[in-house]
Amino acid sequence: MARMARLMARMARLPVTARTGLVMLAGFALLAIVGPVIAPDNPSTVDPAVALQGPSAAHLLGTTQSGQDVLSQLLVGGRDTLLLGLAAGAIATALSVAVGVTAGFLAGIADEFLSLLSNIFLVLPALPLLIVVTGELKDRGPLPTAVVISITGWAWGARVLRAQTLSLRGRDYVLAAREAGERAWRIVAFEIIPNEVAIIASSFVFTTLFAILTYVALAFIGLTDVSTWSWGSMLYWAQNGEALQIGAWWWFIPPGLCVALLGMSLALINFGLDELSDPRLRGIAAPGADRGDRRRARRLWRPAAPTPVLYSVPPPDPEPAPEPALEQAPQLTVGGQP
Amino acid sequence: MTGPLLSIEDLRVQYGIGATAVPAVRGVSMHLNPGEIVGLAGESGCGKSTLAYGACRLLPPPGLITGGQVIYRGRRAAGQAVDLLAATPGQLRELRWSEISIVFQSAMHSLNPVLSVRAQLNDVLVAHTGLRRAARESRARELLDLVGIPAGRLASYPHELSGGMRQRVMIAMALALEPEVVIMDEPTTALDVVVQRAILEQVAALQQEFGFAVLFITHDLSLLLEMADRIAIMYAGRIVEEASAAAIRSSPAHPYTRALLGSFPALRGPQRELAGIGGSPPDPRRLPPGCPFEPRCSAAIGRCQHERPALAYRSGSGRRAACLLTSGPVTSGPVTSEASTSEPVTTPPVTTPSLATEPGSER
Fold first, then answer.
1. Higher pLDDT, B115 or B317
2. Which residues are B214's β-sheet partners?
3. Is the pTM here over 0.80, yes or no?
4. Rounded to a whole number, what is the distance in Å from the CA of B175 to chain A's nearest CA?
């Protein structure tokens, strides 16, 4: 709990990009939770009387070719898109941690084998493979799709984690833990993985983004269950109804924009995660410094430049003036040589 | 050459900016004459490294220089004084290493583990000289020879060298361009005393040969007593005493210097009891209102609690100390020695009330 509170406090000090990303993602999460409840219509209800109408008071985002309410589809479809993305991201990250950390920690033949495995998955072209595999699936619901997507998406993370683990396993504190008799799983779980949280988190966010985009792409070409509503299947039906050709912008822009914004929020979060987990990126201005100080600090310090000189800064605590009577010689002379 | 080679005037350095900034160096003035070895000693966190790196403008963020001047009057500056604090990055780049070089504390981390010694020595020569490949090679051999490493180790990688050899490589690198000032930041801290001795003798011999000035940073005062011409003692971001090594050894004027001297055994002379310094250095953000050393000082008198002593020259002696007890004319000598030896003079509870009154009197 205290950890959570600290995290929240830290979030308040995040750079603007990361905070924007988190707020946007929170908005989408809220949409996914309450969307189906607040949707004005059943998204599947066909009503030819109102087919293909632009935005109006009755249908805020207009209707599709068969008179379905676009807003309702958008609200209902958000949940599916987001859940699938997060599920696939979680599965893929778990896979990459398991494979990458094991390979890096065990080294030797196990490493060779696991590296070969991830290399194979890296060079497999993801989308064609997905098309083939999902084409063969009997149940094209969200969960099987999530599993298939994560199988193609875990290898990048595994490579990165393997490299990081290789570097960490030779560090003194890992050797010390081994010397202290800690068991291998404990060393991995308590000495190595905590040092990789930043990479794992960013790989999770990145894989989630990949999963969402892939899911939308698969749905768009009709390879998922297009009878359930997701932003991808909305685009599929819009494409099917030639929305672009007949100029029904309200049909394809809302789902497309939502996918783009969701992707943007995840990308922004990824920028922020770096800073959140690396204390060296965080604390240029001392903790507790106010906004103005942090802004000044950002302008003042460039990592590779010479130490800045700023004469206008008042000393942090006012110095009592030294007694002039005690000064018997100027502060700087060639004092060493009488 | 007239005047000091490098003079630091009222240098102020802090970490961070705003209300939470930590002032690490609070107005330090000192100088380095040509061919002189000046020692800078003090406890961890007293600002000695910050002072040296700040003066060269090498402090990484959030280091910030907020006042002072660092005047360099070097050979290649042709009699012209350069204020390092006003120098452009380009000017600094030219000065660094060719004029002012640094031997860093940890040779283990300062040498790139994936480059051979040859490549790393070469880098310096390529960056600052127009030497051709063959000339660079022979210069690199010569440099290794200077520090007592067989030239055959040029192809070695840092992990193939011992700690002492790595430190020697660092010294060779620092001397590669025949600088006028070499800053040595605890160059022997990680080494055992035998290797330490050998390396310091080498440094002293090289210094004799080439005549560069050395600013030697260490917390090991005993080492400075042997090595340095002049010693500055720092405490809580200020110099509290500066004098020749002989004067520091024979008649330290500041109680802190005396306490430091009392904390290691003398090699010669009668055995005496070793004494540590109680307590720990003050929080640089909240110094006591009076003398910063007062809470730990065994010789403190009432005035010390609210009067901050200035670093004053004692008349005619060329040495200075920041202590109320000794800042008067030279005649205060016997008084101080008495105060340091006889316990009854000090009032033991002095520390507690001063700590208790500190926040109230500060703000």
1. B115
2. B37, B182
3. no
4. 22
Please check whether residue A108 touches B, CB under 8 A: no
Rounded distance, CA A215 to CA A209, Å? Answer: 10
- Asked if A336 lies within 8 A of B314 by C-beta distance, the reply is no
* B18, B27, B58 ranked by CB distance to A307: nearest: B58
Is B1-99+179-195+205-250 assigned to CATH 3.40.50.300?
yes
The closest CB to that of A315, out of B15, B23, B317, belongs to: B23
Over the stretch B108-145, which tens digit does the pLDDT of each residue have? 788 888 899 999 999 889 988 888 999 999 999 999 99
Q: Letter for the amino acid at A329?
A: A
Q: Which fold has domain A30-50+57-282?
A: MetI-like fold (1.10.3720)
- Does B77 have pLDDT greater than 60? no
Residue with tokens 């430190």: B167
Using alpha carbons, select from A81, A125, A92 the residue that is nearest to residue A215: A81
Six-digit token pair at B286? 């909240």
CA dihedral B106, B108, B110, B116 (to 10 degrees): 150
Q: Give tens-digit pLDDT for A304-318.
A: 788 888 887 766 555
Domain ranges of chain B: 1-99+179-195+205-250, 108-178, 252-362
Select, from the ranges A6-15, A86-95, A198-207, B275-284, the one with the highest average predicted confidence (pLDDT).
A86-95
